[in-house]
Amino acid sequence: MMNLHRPGEPSTVQPGLSTSPDALEIALQDTLAQLAEIDANFEQERVRIHETVKSEVGRENMLRELEGRHAHQRKPLVLLLAALYQRQTSERLLPVRPRNA
User: What is the reported pTM?
Assistant: First the structure.
């Protein structure tokens, strides 16, 4: 099940929760998709600024603001992606076994 939300919002699958390998893979793919959307939106806005803002100073200011927003939107998702990847790798290397086994 994919999580439907705006770019920049963390996935609803939290890395601290017990999740199945399939759920981790879905969360990874969801997070990657969100990052791709953020990056595509950033690139579209960057091109729009270059094409429409005639003042070099104004263009530089707008691009600097855009880059700051872009970094701010990406940061929680990049951190989540790293945590999910680490969790997935840990699950593969050290699978959790039932206590009665």
Answer: 0.74
In sequence order, what are the residues at sequence separation of 6 or more whose Cβ sits closer than 8 angstroms to the Cβ of residue 35? 74, 77, 78, 81
Does residue 49 contact residue 65 with C-beta atoms inside 8 Å? Answer: no
**Per-residue pLDDT tens over the stretch 41-65:** 999 999 999 999 999 999 999 999 9
Q: How far apart are CA 80 and CA 47, in angstroms?
A: 28
Query: Residue 83 burial (CB < 10 Å; 0-12/13-18/19+)?
Result: middle
Q: Let me know if 46 is exposed, middle or buried by CB neighbors in 10 A (0-12, 13-18, 19+).
A: middle
